[in-house]
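Hi P.,

Sorry for the delay on this. The queue was packed all week, but I finally got your sequence through. Input first:
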Amino acid sequence: MQTIENSLLQVSVDENGAQLAHVISKQGDFDYFDNEEKQEKAVAVFKAADNDENLALTLPWTVVDKGDARVSLTLIDTANSYKKFPYHFEIMLTYSIEANQMKIAFHLKNNSNKEMPFSLDYNLPLSSNVAEESVNRIVLEDADKKVILESADFKISSAQDEISCAINQATLAPETSQDVELNFVFE
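Then the structure:
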């Protein structure tokens, strides 16, 4: 488990799947992902456009950079993953915090000489009531906490007990990279 923190937030990331395990308010002394019944994790989902296997959970992540308020993990294709998803790729996922804000940044890189189709999702447990929802923004609110989630890159929606941030049926040109991010404000 990797932990980053500042004076307002403490964030824990599980290297297994680069999953966001905790976002704790130091002032309110509560975990934004704790729904009293169970502690859930936010999960990255990276898969081929026509495949259901989540490569972000089946391949190993490696911590490549760590500071007080940021941690970066990298996922790289393997010979075994290439058999199922015939592309060479890298994903760097960076969690960073500043004041009461957290940014989750993905750097996707296609190292193949052909176009790479993919889907990228980031699924979060829904532990508060949805107060406001639009295509690229969602506001969660309870009596004692509020979370604003925004992205210019992901389509954001809520369903039952989770928030889905999705980039579906996308492609990445050969030998290119793309940066996408999610931004959170915790109040």
